[in-house]
Amino acid sequence: MRIESRDLASIPRAAWDRLAAANPWATPFSAWAFQRAWWDAYGDNAHEQTLVLVAADAPRARAGAMGLERDGSLRPGPDGDDILAIVPLMHRHAVEPGDAERHTTLRHDHGADLTPVPASSKAIYFGASYHADYATILARPVDLPAVAEALVEHLCEACRPGAPEQPWDVVDLRRIRCADPTGDALAEAFRRREIAEGWTLDLEREDACPVVSLPVGSTMDGFLATLDGKVRHEIRRKVRRAEAAGAVELAESVDPLADLEAFIELHQRRWGDEGLFPPTIGGLQSRVFVRRLFELFRPDGAVRLSFLAVGGRRIAAGLTFETPDVVLYYNAGIDPDARELSPGVVLVERLIRRALERGQRRFDFLRGDEGYKYEWGGTDEPIQRLLVRRRVVA
After folding, report:
1. What is the largest CA-CA distance in the chain?
2. Which helix (H) or strand (E) holds 323?
3. Using an 8 Å Cβ cutoff, are 137 and 148 in contact?
4. How far is CA 249 from the centre of its chain?
5. pLDDT 10s digits, 347-386
């Protein structure tokens, strides 16, 4: 295999998603549409460093040889069949404040403090990883060791005298599921070079993603029967109270672009300045990001927007990513004036009910160990961080 740097704009969408589909650990966060939406919204905050692997004897890519329209449709050029793997990376010359000279402690004692990174570091991350809950390499599982080895060799060469780019200080790869063989392949490849290169390698548990297993063929009553008795009673009581106030309906938006403002309003009413969409530059970027998600995933894509209405009044909304087997509960908003109707509880109840009806097997609450996720039967699936620090000789 040979590794090359290519812009996301030069990689055909079909080739990207073909390789994402080849890795069973890839999620919608690894899809071309998610990555493209992130760069369209937040690209000013990072520098793209996407790497592709091709056969050693494949012709080298020529600058300007091909390109894509913003929706991923091809302009004339190669179709990407030469690409065997994609490693979506980015780098920053100033790291996020939360990663700088202070520790990040996981809630509920789920893990030790994460190793801090100096604010001035040139740090390499998985692309879009600040808004993705899972990250991985796009390749067949059988190819992962060779891809990891090629990546580490590339990173070694980037630090040699005369390399075209400023050497990196830190490789900080987050959101890797502990069961994903990508983590083992990367760790082994870095470990083989650790002593010779003067690197320090750490694998750290980054966070927990509570996941609910949905019984095959079960009804909502059957699912609730698997929960703690007190929790089950409270859920049923809150749902009945909402139903007494009017017809309860969970409706998936047929025009999410037109409904985005309604979702944003509900989100901000719940979270205010701590939400995604405050009147700031970051809030404007988040608006672009969510809009691009719906534009790029297209109507039949993985991203869904659903509204919970009681008596015809929208009191909650949920943004999910969905596959035939899994619901990824990404974000939500509620009307605080309807708190007596328990909109958050009823929204999750209706989302799980719909997942059962569709035959989906898992309801993933994603990162964060808030207590309510465990009341629904969530079981921790940890994600890890692979951190490599390079010894810099003054």
Report:
1. 72
2. none
3. yes
4. 28
5. 999 999 999 999 999 999 999 999 999 999 999 999 999 9
CB 159 within 8 A of CB 390: yes
Q: What is the DSSP letter of 138?
A: B
Q: Give alpha helix (H) positions in the chain.
A: 13-22, 32-42, 144-158, 181-197, 220-224, 229-245, 256-271, 281-297, 343-358, 371-375
Q: Do domains 2-208+383-390 and 215-360 have the same CATH topology?
A: yes
Find the radius of gyration of the CA atoms of the chain. Answer: 22
Distance CA 318, CA 59 (A): 46
Where are the domains positioned within the chain? 2-208+383-390, 215-360
CATH number for the domain formed by residue range(s) 2-208+383-390:
3.40.630
CA distances from 292 to 28, 35, 275 (A): 14, 10, 18
Whose tokens are 């939500």? That residue is 332
Predicted confidence (pLDDT) per residue in 227-279, tens digit: 999 999 999 999 999 999 999 999 999 999 999 999 999 999 999 989 999 99
Q: DSSP of 31-81, one letter per residue?
A: SHHHHHHHHHHHGGGSEE--EEEE-TTSPPPPTTS--B-TTSPBPSS--ST
**Whole-angstrom distance, CA of residue 126 vs CA of residue 143:** 19
Cα separation of 225 and 238, whole Å?
A: 16
What CATH class does 215-360 carry? alpha beta
Nearest-CA neighbor of 235 among 225, 248, 247? 225
Tell me how far apart the alpha carbons of residues 218 and 267 are, in angstroms, rounded to a whole number. 31
